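User: I'm writing a tutorial on reading structure tokens. Could you give me a worked example: one chain, its sequence, then its tokens, then a sentence or two explaining what the tokens reveal?
Assistant: Sure. Here is the example chain.
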Amino acid sequence: MHVQDHWRGRARYTVFDSEHGDGSRFASLVAAWYADPQRPAHLHVVALTGSLQPGFHRVPQDDNNVTLDLVSASLETALAELNAHPDFIRLHGAQGTAFVRPLARLAALGARLESHGLDSEQRAALSAQGFAFDGDDATFSTRKPRLPSTPEPDRRALVLGGGVAGCAAAARLCARGWQVTLIERHPQVAMEASGNLAGIFMPLLSRDDNIPTRLTRAAYLYALRLWEQLGGVGRAFDGAGCGVLQLARDAGHAAVSRAIAGDGKLPPDFARWLEPMEAEALLGLPAPDGGWLFPQGGWARPGSVCEALLASCGDLLTRRFGAGDVQLERGDDEWQARSGDGSVIGQAPTVVLASGAGARKMVQTRELPLQALRGQVTHLAPEHAPQLPLVLCREAYLTPSAHGVTCAGATYDLDDDPQLRAASQEENVARLRGLVSDPQAAEGAPLAGRVGFRCVAPDRLPLVGRLPDFAAVGATERLRDVPRHPGLYGLLGYASRGLIWAPLAAELLAAQLEGEPLPLEMALVDALDPARFVLRARRNSRHSPETAPNATDISP
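And here are its predicted structure tokens:
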């Protein structure tokens, strides 16, 4: 069956392949797409593979009009978690018939099925679900009601916030041809939470591979891929993929870590457990309980990441910096961003709110349960800090020296004091001394550093997607039924992991706006939905107060 005669005349074409193999089919498909002058504007391929860590893996391509999602899961699991409606389906050696109903639920009307090795029971089950066979291939039709196709969006957006969240949003929207106006209250990017000299990037591990772990892994891996496409860490922006060593907190923590390592599920280029002697040989310092080495981890200066992201936008981006505090008003199906004097700074049907803790000041989002946590980072001259070959962390972190500065931090404070203070310096230095097992480290270092405020949600997960309209909320019990502000979306609550949350969250939001297949499992998409707090508030009003999830992570 030839796919080319099926995709012509379409704006977007999605292919589902149950076996990615060595990637040759994907390469051939892309070559055919390039060769066809009547090709669809966008080609999206979702393929199953067993060679990656569990979950969805969006792999950026050189051409923004080609998207590849590799899914490391069984066919049944992938179909249950997939948000895509394939126009063309390739099945290779499927087992049983459990996959048939979820496949029919996802398939687009008129989808073509190319099958290999189906038995008579599988063919009969597929036929019963609406696949009409002609030889080994079939065409899908159904009498069941189907959701209408997503209309082409009006590709104009305002993005509020010039930190890593907003800059990533601008980049992923512009990659899809959107015209974006980026509005920032300060005169330049990254002057609030994204303004630190160094942020670290690393994954999260847990014994039960819980939702925070799965989300962080997906975000970390996508960030590495996207940064490489931009030009690479240390080349496209300031930083180094020098590795991160996360020391075990104590013997108990080390035992949990050994159990995780003993499962043999973690690729060594992703995470590798080091016993004390190996960790000490690498670090050149004591590591009495060993630690995790994340070879692809490291540090980056968030402000330079912001500039690299914005540089990729080209002339589709308009910057409105130095805008001060902004409020939103909606009328005639568009949002207007107005400055303090009432003048209109920008106008578009879609707004992405990526202003961190500043969202608490907005009329539309002030009821979201967001908190601003103060974080003071200490800057040390090389003579006051150990010289490290990589990032070192446990309850705190310490970066290698760059541009004559080592960064140590950061505190978690519940006050709103923006000034450097000695007590926070002492806290950072005390943790530094514990990290390097040296009670004299940073002795006599002058008070120097920076204060920023992290935007944090109660469950420590980001808010990604359409923002709920609290004023219109009724007795809903499902996320999909929560009333939303039209055209208003959020990228908020990145806490201490903004560097890695920003790319994947922006990609997810852009895919939602475009009606594309999503880059995450639906369970993880729902875990990020800002409306989750509406449902939790309703549950809490009927039951005892809800506590935070008891995740068994081994993060610092």
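What the tokens reveal: Confidence is low (pLDDT under 50) at residues 544-556. The chain has 14 helices and 28 strands.
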